[in-house]
Structure formats: C-alpha cells, structure tokens
Design goal:
Elements: H1 13-23, H2 30-69, H3 71-99
Length: 110
C-alpha cells in the first residue's frame, strides 16, 4: 500500500478510522448510528434555518433602504439578480437531469 488513502470500496482507511472513533461511546447498531446521524443533520438544519431567517430580515431591511434612497438603481440591480437566479435555476436543472441516467437528453454523445 503506497499511502493511507488507498480506497477500500468508497472508504479510505483514514475515513474508516474516523468513523470508528466517532462511534465510540455511541449505540453502534445500524439504527443507533443512523439515528445519531439524522439527529445531527436535523440540528444543523435547524441552526441554518435560524441563521437564514435572521439574515433574511437584514436583506429585507437593506432592500427597503435601497428602494427608498435609490429606486431606479435598486430596480436595475433587482432585475439583474432575477436574471441570474433564472440562469442558476436552469444550470441546477441541467445538473439534476445529468444525475438521472434515465432522463431523456442525458445520453452521452457518441
């Protein structure tokens, strides 16, 4: 073995060791492992949701100030944001389509 990063399936020895260390002191059954992982993901999701909610209030305050003080320029920027959001949505759609092998139009070019 040339290095500690040789793959064992999809796991490197370092990742397997990290998993073993993480499981020490926890319920090492599959339901226990999955339950702990789901709980951690739910906690992180709640933290992100809380932070985004506070930040959305800040963005809306900034938008209000902008529209009150520079309406025309603000509307131009909003229009550009919407244009780029559409572009991003189209790219995300292509990504999803590419990830689904049974989706028409995703065959590899010959």
């Amino acid at each position: 073995v040339a290095s500690g990063d040789e793959l064992i399936g999809l796991w490197t020895p370092r990742r397997l060791l990290a998993l073993v260390r993480m499981l020490r002191g926890h319920d090492a059954t599959v339901p226990g492992i999955l339950g702990a992982a789901v709980a951690r993901l739910a906690q992180r999701s709640a933290e992100i949701q809380h932070a985004r909610a506070k930040n959305n209030i800040n963005w809306m305050s900034l938008l209000k100030i902008s529209l009150e003080n520079a309406t025309d320029r603000s509307l131009e920027v909003i229009d550009e944001i919407l244009r780029l959001d559409r572009e991003i949505s189209e790219l995300a759609g292509k990504l999803v389509d590419t990830a689904r092998p049974d989706t028409p139009g995703t065959e590899e070019a010959s």
